[in-house]
Design brief:
heterodimer, A: about 525 residues, mainly alpha, 17 helices, about 65% helix, B: about 300 residues, about 0% strand, globular
Chain lengths: ~525, ~300
């Protein structure tokens, strides 16, 4: 192995300037943050496609009332795996991939703090998802109990494949924990001299806080699935009232993980948007300090709101009141952020390149998702909304035009830095408008069918919901195929895009833009000076 | 270019290597093998552990080479102060994640004990469940009479403390004493490194490993006692469930900690560790203190209260 030789030659040879290996070995054995970031991003895109196909199977079945396309058992497996794959396989790895690419460049470091562990965090994922997807082909079928895997559906009444599912979740958790440790160590330990905490770019801040959320809740998820495993295989009764346990306890433990998980999927998005809007408004971010404090407050609040997911399960009144008010409190820091983004645009010299379009759509549509979240926070109202398509509309608004749009915006924004080429602006805009229209046609009608009482996770529905569902399905196919178009825009850009300058966006600020495009294999071999000009974009 | 260890502006970035991807594959083999084994055992089919063991073997071999490599790099002076600081952050936050793992089980214990069992016994908003399904169930902790003893046979006896005057014949008390003293002995070993006293280092570290092993032996003893004489099993309702998952995962972590300390002991025999350069030892001792603190929580909430 070359690494042994390398260790003996470090005196004559800078420890950093080794280039990539050749062929497949580069990707399997890499310790380079950019290679690993690329792996994460392509993997998440692949999972996005797999989860997307599942979504389209769901929408095909729901195109018309009645059962015509798949049987209900398979429908349940599709809703379950669509959720799990999109959350753990698409959104989360995409953000980790962005962190891998951007954190060392933005803090002025040569690489991530623990490069070999970085490779391990990635390579666990394909194996974990290999296991999870293989459950669909096992006897008795794959997980069919919803992505929240409530006991006893996921214990007493689960298919045998649930054991494989449990271990797959353990592996994903291990990957996330190692990834978080790496990100924390990189941010806290490897910043360029002069980059104080309050000069860090917001993407760095949001990921730092996200990493802490992951460290705090992924082990709790591991604990939850471990108790499931014991209930299934070792006769324990954690989630079985006949032995003195409680199925509702599962929901508490799950949502203690699950609610911070929601913010794990949106805080880095806040960071991305806080880079893009100032760049295209050509103004510094309005209220940097308040942005940092808002993110920290949201992260803190995320730990004390979990039971708003389970108002209808039967909770003491005091609990319902507490979780209702604490949930509403989240609107305050979130409102601060939305206010700041809009104030950043106020009187700016705005241009509307593709990343900016996605970022503005993020602000508008994420806010709609936030407002429907406020409606759901009202306990008595939630009695009506619970487990209806209103909830589906709500969380898809925060996750698709929220988290996903921010990821797409980030890809367009940093694409020149990654590849050294520009994507085609016209194609990017087509992609944006198709996505924007598709996502709204898909999810906006679901507010109405939900308020009218259509339950989620059911393959059939009453006739009065037919029009809204048909519309939703049409939108879903528009949206789905516009993401296939996205891959075309990307590949077109990589192969025949125009060469990009070091700072292709005149308003972009931050250390990554001081590097040439494409960025060198090791970002900063020597720590750069952090000027006020480049401090927090 | 200067030596990485001397030039603080250079951060050591290792070359690419095969360890991570093989480790990931090993983990997959191990866990899918275990899942198949569990499912076969549950269905009453013939079971086979070969795949699990092959996976476990891969994981162990890779970890051996990986750690050996990191130690060798450090001895060549490649690991500079910044990298060592990354290790410190990494270990610290790893232990935090372990704390949260145990928090899930402690949370289950408190929830079951304070809320679920009393609701089943007829208190509060959710009393109907108990009233309709098991009207005879009476809330108590430890739960010695399960709501449905046909499904979950009642434990014969609990592990509760027999009162402080009887502690000398109470095994968990001795386990507490052993684990607490092992935290002290590992600290003495650290002091020995600072005093550059090799003999003292080896002695105290060796004693710590021994104490860890004794703890584990006693824990196994306690489990045998619970299963064979007390009739307390994982199947005896929520008390047995919480008891065995908490003490079991703690025991698993003690096992890991003992193995880690044993490795440090073997390294000490080979002459590793100096006052400025003993991260492996320190990380092991932090882990050991963490395991110790969890035990104190266990002793208070599982055994005493």
């Amino acid at each position: 192995m070359s690494e042994v030789i390398h260790a003996d030659h470090h005196d004559e040879h800078d420890a950093h300037d080794h280039g990539p290996e050749k062929g497949l070995a580069r990707w399997l054995f890499t310790t380079n943050h950019k290679d690993i970031g690329t792996l994460y991003l392509w993997f998440s895109f692949l999972m996005f496609m797999v989860g997307g196909v599942m979504a389209l199977i769901i929408r095909t079945e729901l195109f018309e009332p009645g059962l015509q396309f798949v049987d209900p058992e398979f429908f349940n497996q599709m809703t379950t795996n669509h959720g799990l794959i999109m959350v753990f396989g698409a959104i989360m790895p995409a953000f980790v991939g962005l962190a891998n690419w951007l954190v060392p460049m933005q803090v002025g470091a040569p690489d991530m703090a623990l490069p070999r562990m970085n490779n391990l965090s990635f390579w666990i994922l394909p194996f974990a998802f290999g296991i999870m997807i293989s459950t669909l082909f096992m006897e008795g079928g794959g997980p069919n109990f919803g992505w929240t895997f409530y006991a006893p559906l996921s214990t007493t009444y689960a298919p045998d494949s649930v054991t494989f599912f449990i271990f797959a979740v353990h592996m994903m958790g291990a990957s996330s924990i190692m990834g978080s440790i790496n990100i924390i160590a990189t941010i806290l330990n490897m910043r360029a001299p002069g980059m104080t905490l309050m000069k860090m770019p917001l993407f760095i801040w949001t990921w730092l806080i996200t990493a802490y959320l992951l460290l705090a809740v992924m082990p709790v998820l591991a604990g939850a699935v471990t108790m499931m495993l014991f209930d299934i295989h070792f006769d324990t009764s954690f989630f079985n009232a006949a032995g003195g346990g409680d199925p509702v306890m599962f929901q508490h433990i799950f949502w203690f993980f699950g609610h911070p998980e929601v913010y794990i999927m949106i805080l880095p998005a806040f960071g991305i948007v806080s880079h893009i809007i100032p760049a295209f408004a050509r103004k510094p971010l309005f209220g940097y300090d308040s942005m940092v404090y808002a993110v920290a407050s949201i992260a803190f609040l995320s730990f004390i709101v979990w039971a708003h997911h389970m108002f209808t399960v039967g909770m003491p009144l005091a609990g319902q009141l507490f979780f209702m008010y604490s949930t509403m409190l989240i609107a305050v820091p979130t409102g601060v952020k939305v206010f700041n983004w809009i104030s950043t645009m106020w009187k700016g010299s705005m241009t509307f390149e593709t990343p900016m379009l996605f970022a503005i759509a993020f602000v508008v549509l994420f806010t709609i998702g936030g407002f429907s979240g406020l409606m759901l926070a009202i306990t008595p109202a939630d009695y009506q909304y619970h487990d209806t398509y209103f909830v589906v509309a709500h969380f898809h608004y925060v996750l698709v035009p929220g988290a996903l749009f921010s990821i797409i915006a980030a890809v367009y924004f940093w694409f020149p830095k990654w590849t050294g080429r520009m994507y085609d602006e016209g194609l990017g805009k087509i992609h944006f408008w198709l996505s924007f229209i598709g996502v709204n046609i898909t999810f906006f009608p679901q507010h109405f069918s939900g308020l009218a009482g259509m339950p989620r996770r059911i393959p059939d529905y009453a006739l009065q919901f037919a029009d809204f569902n048909m519309l939703s399905s049409v939108g879903a196919f528009i949206f789905g195929f516009s993401q296939v178009f996205f891959i075309f825009v990307i590949i077109h850009g990589i192969r025949s895009g125009k060469p990009a300058t070091a700072r292709p966006w005149e308003g972009a600020r931050g250390l990554e833009w001081t590097l040439p495009s494409p960025a060198p294999y090791h970002s900063f071999t020597h720590p750069p000076k952090v000027t006020d000009e480049e401090a927090h974009a | 270019m200067a030596n990485a260890a001397e030039d603080s502006s250079i951060y050591y970035v290792p070359h690419s290597g095969w360890y991570p991807v093989v480790l990931a594959a090993g983990v997959m083999l191990m866990l899918t093998g275990l899942a198949s084994w569990l499912n076969a055992a549950k269905a009453g089919d013939p079971t086979n552990l070969t795949q699990t063991l092959v996976g476990f073997g891969m994981v162990s071999v890779v970890l051996y080479f990986w750690f050996a490599k990191v130690i060798a790099e450090n001895q060549q002076g490649l690991a500079n102060a910044a990298l060592k600081k990354s290790y410190v952050w990494g270990m610290g936050w790893f232990i935090f994640s372990e704390v949260m793992f145990f928090a899930a089980f402690f949370g289950a214990l408190f929830y079951a004990r304070v809320l679920a069992v009393s609701w089943l016994g007829g208190e509060g908003d959710k009393a109907f469940t108990g009233d309709y399904l098991w009207p005879d169930f009476e809330a108590a902790w430890p739960v010695m009479n399960n709501p449905d003893p046909e499904l979950f046979p009642n434990p014969g006896e609990s592990m509760a403390s027999p009162g402080i005057s009887n502690w000398l014949s109470y095994l968990p008390f001795w386990n507490t004493a052993i684990l607490l003293s092992s935290s002290v002995t590992v600290h003495f070993a650290h002091t020995a490194i600072k005093e550059k006293n090799r003999a003292k280092l080896k002695a105290w570290l060796g004693i710590t490993v021994l104490l860890g092993i004794i703890f584990l032996v006693l824990q196994v003893e306690e489990y045998i006692h619970a299963y064979q004489e007390l009739g307390l099993t994982m199947g005896s309702g929520i008390y047995g469930s919480t008891f065995f998952i908490l003490t079991g995962f703690h025991g698993f972590h003690v096992t890991l900690g003992t193995v880690i300390l044993l490795v440090q002991f073997l390294r000490a025999l080979k002459g590793h560790f100096s006052e400025e350069d003993c991260f492996g030892f320190e990380a092991a001792s932090w882990y050991w203190h963490f395991v110790d603190v969890v035990w104190v929580g266990l002793f208070v909430f599982v055994y005493l209260l």
